[in-house]
Amino acid sequence: MNPTYDFAGRVAFVTGASSGMGLATARAFAASGAAVALTDIDEAALTSAAEQLTGEGHHVIAIICDVTDEDQVAAAVDRTVDTFGRLDMAYNNAGIQIPPADAADEPAEVFDRVHAVNLRGIWAGMKHELRHMRTQGSGAIVNCSSLGGLVGIPGRASYHASKHGVIGLTGSAALEYAPRGIRINAICPGTIDTPMVSDMIAKGELDRAEAEAGQPINRLGTADEIAQAVLWLCSPGASFVIGVALPVDGGYVAQ
Known about the structure:
Helices cover 46% and strands 15% of the residues. It is α/β, with parallel strands linked by helices. The longest helix has 29 residues. The mean pLDDT is 96.
């Protein structure tokens, strides 16, 4: 049984919210009573996700946003505050995966693209969330890194560099804003059963059996399990937790 949270009167902002971990987290925030802004670059999927949550009786808005464009990110955060009056919690989740590549052969444009989304996108989200939270003197932010932010794997250098960067960004900002009443942490998901991972398996970029065997729990994680970790980090139960990079990976990095 998952813990329950009372986020009534609170406002959450989620990037990459049209599917997978982002949608699961947006739904979990909403089910706990929060008003939620869902953002994503995929307009059709985002509209569908928002309609689902609205149909379930939740208070949500959908905002099309490309996290590589800082102006779009700033506008999305501002619209959230204009609509709901405040911003209490944020999950900077938007990210992409790239095909495995020999470190000597990977094109610069692939490196630039994965960093534009996975690192710069989180930097932009956190920056503009903090602009509002520091005025309030309160808030909680969770940035999505990866088990790839904690370890290295052959063929994944550029992707892992982006995720290591998220942890550095998180730790430094957490120390800066802890005295101002704002908690910033990161989560490091293992291999999670999401549409992105399904796509990697379908393309032959990931072997499901190997991925399951590589996690001591011997299965893939679920998006709901990531959502529960995010909600805990945003809850009063984690009030003394600041600047961590929390593995949610079935034991992968403990090996």
